Backbone:
């Protein structure tokens, strides 16, 4: 046992695939991909309008981290479908790249001494935060996509604050390592002709350079070339892409999303056969509470309170909008044809000719977004409806009967189902 090298010894890690250029290529892929993930994640956070009202803000202690927030637009109507679809699908696609990158640098985690200089100490610290942050963000993201809430607390603050910790470590690491990564890529291009001319086409182990800790002084016999390793990583990413991206589409493409909860065949048949997150039963919606005798919509505004039955709502001017549903888990539907009363018309009923913000409350008794706020620009959009029907038929209980909100470009949780009360005005 005494002769066995320790993990801190270069001889412990013997794969001939590891090397600074292998790591550099993976790092540059992650540099582009994670930047897109961070930007689309910030856009997803902004789409909730957390600065509008406390009911929308699941991160009240964010402080300066909310510096970029803005009024989320309603155009194009597929905006959230695009940004969140890219965020989740790209995140899943990058998992093999991330794992390969972590595997490629694992010798550095055990290298001694822990710090050779201040710059090296910062690099090691950023690496630890980077590895921990990456694993945390990808694991919580995948669990949320799979609807498995195994982590303590709410997904929203955990993923939001974790993203900032991870991105700070990521930026620090990039600043410290990018010059070396570029140097290794230039060296790779310079040696390509030499390698192509080697007898037998084999690949020689990389000579130790600045990152010689990644290169084994006694490499094992190769079982795969570096090119083959890149192929395995890329193939894994393409496989994950092919088996998840379909949940952002309807029809045959959705059936290819075999790894996604909202993949496969659409539920049921008929006009209401499109995806949902929560059923009426799961949300605790009782049939007696949505019956014609029991349910009334309560509108509160400048002129007081107005109560409307579903029959009275159906007698008001009806409008239609072709809008998708898109959720934070990355799944979405194509445009559905919604029919109902415009939100701005309901605001006018209680004295608001200029559409104001609105607080929407659901019959649902529990859940993070059973109460949600919409901005004035969302209320005022002619496509924003209190929907009573979809695709020519009454809403089903699972789609929000007797009435639900539908707003262009809004996250699914802001399209409140089983609406009971709407309060217009300053929130």
Residues:
């Amino acid at each position: 046992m005494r002769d066995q090298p320790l993990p801190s010894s270069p001889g412990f890690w013997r794969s001939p695939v590891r090397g600074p250029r292998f790591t550099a290529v993976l790092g540059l892929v992650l540099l582009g991909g994670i930047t897109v993930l961070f930007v689309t994640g910030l856009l997803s956070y902004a789409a909730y309008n957390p600065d509008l009202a406390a009911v929308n803000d699941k991160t009240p202690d964010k402080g300066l981290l909310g510096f970029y927030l803005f009024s989320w637009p309603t155009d194009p109507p597929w905006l959230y479908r695009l940004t969140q679809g890219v965020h989740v699908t790209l995140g899943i696609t990058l998992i093999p790249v991330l794992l390969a990158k972590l595997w490629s640098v694992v010798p550095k985690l055990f290298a001694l001494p822990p710090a050779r200089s201040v710059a090296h100490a910062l690099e090691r610290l950023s690496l630890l935060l980077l590895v921990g942050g990456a694993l945390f963000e990808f694991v919580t993201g995948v669990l949320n996509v799979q609807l498995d809430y195994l982590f303590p607390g709410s997904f929203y603050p955990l993923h939001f604050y974790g993203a900032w910790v991870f991105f700070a470590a990521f930026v620090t690491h990039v600043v410290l390592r990018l010059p070396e990564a570029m140097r290794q890529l230039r060296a790779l291009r310079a040696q390509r002709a030499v390698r192509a001319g080697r007898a037998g086409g084999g690949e020689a182990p990389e000579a130790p350079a600045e990152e010689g800790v990644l290169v084994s002084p006694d490499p094992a016999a190769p079982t795969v070339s570096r090119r083959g390793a890149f192929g395995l990583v890329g193939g894994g990413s393409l496989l994950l892409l092919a088996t998840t991206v379909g949940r952002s589409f309807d029809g045959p493409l959705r059936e290819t999303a075999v790894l996604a909860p909202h993949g496969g065949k659409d539920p049921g048949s008929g006009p209401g056969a499109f995806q949902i997150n929560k059923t009426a039963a799961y949300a605790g919606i009782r049939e007696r509470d949505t019956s014609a005798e029991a349910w009334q919509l309560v509108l509160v505004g400048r002129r007081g309170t107005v109560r409307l039955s579903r029959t009275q709502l159906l007698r008001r001017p009806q409008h239609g909008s072709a809008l998708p549903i898109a959720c934070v888990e990355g799944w979405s539907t194509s445009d559905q044809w919604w029919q109902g009363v415009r939100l701005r018309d309901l605001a006018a009923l209680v004295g608001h000719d200029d559409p104001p913000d609105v607080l929407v409350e659901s019959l649902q008794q529990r859940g993070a977004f059973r109460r949600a706020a919409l901005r004035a620009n969302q209320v005022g959009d002619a496509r924003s409806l209190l929907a009573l029907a979809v695709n020519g038929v009454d809403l089903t209980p699972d789609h929000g009967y007797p009435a639900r909100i539908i707003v262009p470009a809004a996250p699914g949780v802001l399209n409140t189902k089983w609406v009971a009360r709407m309060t217009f005005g300053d929130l």
